[in-house]
Amino acid sequence: MKKHNFSAGPCILPAEVFQQASEAVLDFNNSGLSILEISHRSKDFVAVIEEARNLALELLQLDNNKYTALFLHGGASMQFLMTPHNLLEKKAAYLNTGTWASKAIKEAKLFGEVIEVASSEDKNFNYIPKNFEIPTGIDYFHCTSNNTIYGTQLKSFPKSNAPLVCDMSSDIFSRDIDYSQFDLIYAGAQKNIGPAGTTLVIINKAILGKVSRKIPSILDYKSHIEKESMFNTPSVFAIYTSLLNLRWLKKQGGVSALAKINKHKAELLYAELDRNPLFTPYANKEDRSLMNITFNLANPELSHTFDALWQQAGINALNGHRSLGGYRASIYNALTVESVQLLTEVMQELENKA
Amino acid sequence: MKKHNFSAGPCILPAEVFQQASEAVLDFNNSGLSILEISHRSKDFVAVIEEARNLALELLQLDNNKYTALFLHGGASMQFLMTPHNLLEKKAAYLNTGTWASKAIKEAKLFGEVIEVASSEDKNFNYIPKNFEIPTGIDYFHCTSNNTIYGTQLKSFPKSNAPLVCDMSSDIFSRDIDYSQFDLIYAGAQKNIGPAGTTLVIINKAILGKVSRKIPSILDYKSHIEKESMFNTPSVFAIYTSLLNLRWLKKQGGVSALAKINKHKAELLYAELDRNPLFTPYANKEDRSLMNITFNLANPELSHTFDALWQQAGINALNGHRSLGGYRASIYNALTVESVQLLTEVMQELENKA
Ligand SMILES: Cc1ncc(COP(=O)(O)O)c(C=O)c1O
Ligand SMILES: Cc1ncc(COP(=O)(O)O)c(C=O)c1O
Ligand SMILES: [Mg+2]
Ligand SMILES: [Mg+2]
Ligand SMILES: [Mg+2]
Ligand SMILES: [Mg+2]
């Protein structure tokens, strides 16, 4: 039985993407070769990576001349390091909204002064700090648009003269915002982009070249831009599958079409959580994520019954992050409204039983 | 028509590995989930990465207590950086046998003194320097076991008191040598291990912890060892497919069984190159690689005819590396004797025509 997959990442992708990726492992483009055995320098793969890079910018409505899109190795965590390595000369400001933001801060401290403009650690990151000030004279400001673990999301982004850097690992391509307010966006592919194994990095080229340190070539955004995202052997299959997924997204009507469906899915689920006395949402109401919906059972003793119910219903991976516990429903682009409806029905079933 | 794939990497893998990987993209382990959508923390994937790490050591006959195997991001090129970052305190010695060795040297120089013990650049890397001396007081000695571009291969490795570090990207698991003479082995997966997108790193844990610099966590071998190769989201599909390939290798009888076949394939091809007056092998005879066989046409004007012949025969990717030109037949583990025979027949056909 096909599962209803609420995994936080790696996560569900459209069924047609799985189908096409599976076929390409046997025979890519009727070439008589698997996508796994072709040279990354082959005409066919160069076309794939070019289309993927262009399509990423197109879907975010970003100017192809100003921005460049790269598919890099290392996961989002590698960007915690590459960002300060390339951009931090003296000091940078970071907003601390959870585990991932904290890890980004930790790496940045190896390169210069880090000003933590605000933190929601006092309430275990169940909200997004507001009304903080961005200091002047910083090299950049860094934030995490969506906090995968806690289920909080920035609804708007601060204005400042400094370059704006954003870890969008868990909500890129999911909502209709002005992506051109950012100067550097990065995202591990394994949520709304594709499978694990590649990382999308989008850079406003004008912000580069301003630090005085020597950057090892593989960590230098400029090397990757110069080599058109082929500084070394790229993650061929992960990039191809990401392209399949971006094509699917375009066919659905692009980011704004998905944004509407995502909003609808989240509203369905939050409405049930608010209505149903057995469940308590974790995140502060106005900061609720539309991608990762975190909640607890009002009475933890019901967990065995609830777990049995959702597992019997064919739901996968509803447990919260191991650092937080509770539950988390990750409802990325490819998850259908039907899957969300099923989850709300299971919640009602628990209510009827309890 | 299925091709005879002589690509230098990414490259051919066994047909049954493509089949199993393709099936897992639709449904992994009868779970109702694609291998692309499962959490890397799921029981099923933790079992995959553990088996892959253990099997890598087992196939190389390395002691599980002394060595640890990791599947990391970034390709072999990331190891050009991680090696000196983790090991180079004062000075290291490198053998320069080509492009990849030179790139490794370049990154190492950011961290300390680099002594190039010998270089074959004088003859465009068509041989392996011998009788060089390894200086005392170095932090490690680094070499490239097989030079993918030039088709040369180290037949033995120098003894020294310093840790021995080896880039084995293009010949790991292909020959019967004493792997325990090395303290650190790394290899991009995309040759004899699996698809592009993951890198195998094998470390004698005793050599770590000796540099005084602060290492960013994602570049620190110790973080990866501590987190059992899951410091961050690993390249799930590439690691799973690598496991399928390592299982295949074990089923064939392991490294020594493949080593025999590889030797036979290389002998077939070199014999034809030596015999056939139309072809000139590139590498110095005693340094010939058993994995990448480089050669030129004695008369370059025959290239159109030759290219048409091998392409018609269903042979893929016989062109030399773009930096060297000529031809290169990469005959990795999964390439069959039949494919090599076919190539020798095409060479004879050219001779009969010319
Ligand atoms: C917001 C965010 N940033 C960073 C990461 C780390 O990503 P990776 O595992 O690709 O390094 C994650 C992982 O889930 C994430 O959700
Ligand atoms: C011997 C050797 N070392 C290093 C590399 C670079 O590997 P990657 O592209 O994974 O960084 C290659 C690539 O072919 C290679 O053959
Ligand atoms: Mg978080
Ligand atoms: Mg409630
Ligand atoms: Mg080389
Ligand atoms: Mg000859």
TrEMBL record, chains A, B:
It is found in: Cytoplasm. One of its GO terms (biological process) is L-serine biosynthetic process. Keywords: Amino-acid biosynthesis, Aminotransferase, Cytoplasm, Pyridoxal phosphate, Pyridoxine biosynthesis, Serine biosynthesis, Transferase. Residues 5-343 form the Aminotransferase class V domain. Its cofactor is pyridoxal 5'-phosphate. One of its GO terms (cellular component) is cytoplasm. Pyridoxal 5'-phosphate binds at A76, S77, W100, T148, D167, Q190, N232, T233. It is an enzyme of class 2 (transferase). Transmembrane segments: none annotated. Its EC number is 2.6.1.52. It catalyses: O-phospho-L-serine + 2-oxoglutarate = 3-phosphooxypyruvate + L-glutamate; 4-(phosphooxy)-L-threonine + 2-oxoglutarate = (R)-3-hydroxy-2-oxo-4-phosphooxybutanoate + L-glutamate. Belongs to the class-V pyridoxal-phosphate-dependent aminotransferase family. SerC subfamily. Catalyzes the reversible conversion of 3-phosphohydroxypyruvate to phosphoserine and of 3-hydroxy-2-oxo-4-phosphonooxybutanoate to phosphohydroxythreonine. This is Phosphoserine aminotransferase. The lineage of its organism: Bacteria, Pseudomonadati, Bacteroidota, Flavobacteriia, Flavobacteriales. The gene is serC.
